[in-house]
Amino acid sequence: MTNSIVPSGLLQRAGPKGRVRACRVSPLVPKASIILPMASERTAGEQASESLQRPESISEPIPAAEEGGGTEYRYCPLCGTRLVRRELFGRIRPQCPACGFIYFQDPKVAVIALITRGKQVLLIRRGVDPGRGKWALPGGFMDAGEMPQEALRREVQEEVGLAVEIQELLGIYPMAGPGARSRGIVLAYRAVPTQAVGMTLVCDDDADEARWFTPAEVPGELAFESTRTLLARWKAEIDGASP
């Protein structure tokens, strides 16, 4: 971790991955007495580090139409100044022109379950967008501090009231849909109900209906490509196991 004091009174912290964090501090000396060395007096390493931190381009403030789309922030969460787009670390990122805060958009992580019972699969009809009114595999977003299997058990319980045993990871898929909440990955697992009989599906959360389907009954209106891919794989397994 390296620190540097700049005339604006910001403490810039550069981590091992090159990401810069800035926080406001009281200047160690009056601004008028800060003297920066000329470019010729700085080492090549210092000049290279400075070039990484200096924005190459600045555009207009992020428009209101992009709220919830290209970024989750239009205003700085630290000082309230409107963010602008700047080229930082090889990509256009929202940054605060006042305090230097940079918004790094971390990917969302969701989990879904291919829950089977004999030659049937469980699907939910989504009650919310994206994919409202279409069918999908049960699942949802992970919460901070959760492991994927833990999150998936919670989501299935919330959506259909079913306790399941999580089995192997089936695949990792790109998240599809508009907005910043849809920029991430989907972890798909195989799962089975923990009880063989007496299962009552109680829809809640994002689901307005849940049903068991045979391969021939699977509806054509599917919400996501990951659901379509996994169901095709499941149907192929059923066909291969048929005598």
Could you explain how this protein is built, in words?
Helix content is 16%, strand content 32%. The chain is built from three helices and 13 strands, in the order E-E-E-H-E-E-E-E-E-E-E-H-E-E-E-H. The strands form three sheets. Strands 7, 8, 9, 10, 11, 12 and 13 form a seven-stranded mixed β-sheet that branches. A three-stranded antiparallel β-sheet has the order 1-2-3, with no helix packed on it. A three-stranded antiparallel β-sheet has the order 4-5-6, with no helix packed on it. It is elongated, with a radius of gyration of 25 Å. The chain starts with a strand and ends with a helix. One of its GO terms (molecular function) is hydrolase activity. Keywords: Hydrolase. Belongs to the Nudix hydrolase family. This is NUDIX hydrolase.
Counting helices, strands and paired strands, the structural category is: alpha+beta
Number of helices: 3
- At CATH level 3, the topology of the largest domain is Nucleoside Triphosphate Pyrophosphohydrolase
The unreliable regions are 1-14, 22-58, 64-70
Structural domains: how many: 2
Query: Shape from CA axes?
Result: elongated
What radius of gyration results from the CA coordinates? 25 Å
**CATH level-two architecture of the largest domain:** Alpha-Beta Complex
| Corresponding CATH superfamily of the largest domain | Nucleoside Triphosphate Pyrophosphohydrolase
Termini Cα gap: 63 Å
Q: Please provide the count of β strands.
A: 13
Helix content: 10-25%
Question: Can you summarize the main beta sheet?
Answer: 7 strands, mixed
**Helix and strand succession?**
EEEHEEEEEEEHEEEH
What portion of the residues fall into strands of 2 or more residues?
25-35%
On the 0 to 100 scale, the average pLDDT is 77
The CATH first-level class of the largest domain comes to Alpha Beta
